[in-house]
Amino acid sequence: MMRFEGKVAIVTGAGSGIGEACAQTLAAQGAAVVIADVSEPGGNRVADGITRAGGRAVFCRTDVSDESDVANLVRTAIDSFGGLHLAVNNAGLSHPQARLHEIAPADFDTAANVTLRGTFLCMRAELGHFVEHGTGAIVNVSSCAGLKSATRMAGYSASKHGVIGLTRTAAIDYASEGIRINSVAPATIATPKILSYPTELQAQWASLIPMGRMGTPREVADLVTFLLSDEASFITGSTYELDGGMMQALPA
């Protein structure tokens, strides 16, 4: 199903995990994709894989917390493929687990700069182009930690809450201009980073999910691409839980 034929998309944090799956799914459905990541090996690998599979992709090394990098990212989409129609703002960072008074300010800043400031800067640049052309769709990747508390992860949780706040506010501000903005809130997803942790820890995380397993990057990508598509043309300002029932099972 080539639902994105003729569309150009940006995906941040696309060098692995959820971002990689989103980029691959968009490309398989016809979009030209700009792969944004701070990792050159990861970003080039994903872009090359899409190209070898017959899709269109370029890599643009991007630190989303840097305004000039983000401006260059949008320019790369326009220069490489002639426009920009879709964006997945997925890049984010956590910090070492600790209670709030034990979190180093530098660790908090790093998490917030990438996860929250990075999402803001990307949306700002993307929306500037979308307003000029009267169309566009954005999906921001938050987390279940952006909907409820996340023990010993105050900076990460606050940043992910902020991503949802940006999504909801911007969705209303731009709804009358043909621009839709939504977010997704995954529980633990079996990304390469998560799978690098000890199996006992992975099992503990999976046990918190009523379905008894972690999600997959492809499952997140399928929801993200639906929200970007014309099939979701009346959906904006929404946050979708992708959690195997976890949020419903938690105490109120």
UniProtKB/TrEMBL annotation:
<dbReference type="InterPro" id="IPR020904">
    <property type="entry name" value="Sc_DH/Rdtase_CS"/>
</dbReference>
<dbReference type="InterPro" id="IPR002347">
    <property type="entry name" value="SDR_fam"/>
</dbReference>
<dbReference type="Pfam" id="PF13561">
    <property type="entry name" value="adh_short_C2"/>
</dbReference>
<protein>
    <submittedName>
        <fullName>SDR family NAD(P)-dependent oxidoreductase</fullName>
    </submittedName>
</protein>
<dbReference type="InterPro" id="IPR036291">
    <property type="entry name" value="NAD(P)-bd_dom_sf"/>
</dbReference>
<keyword id="KW-0560">Oxidoreductase</keyword>
<comment type="similarity">
    <text>Belongs to the short-chain dehydrogenases/reductases (SDR) family.</text>
</comment>
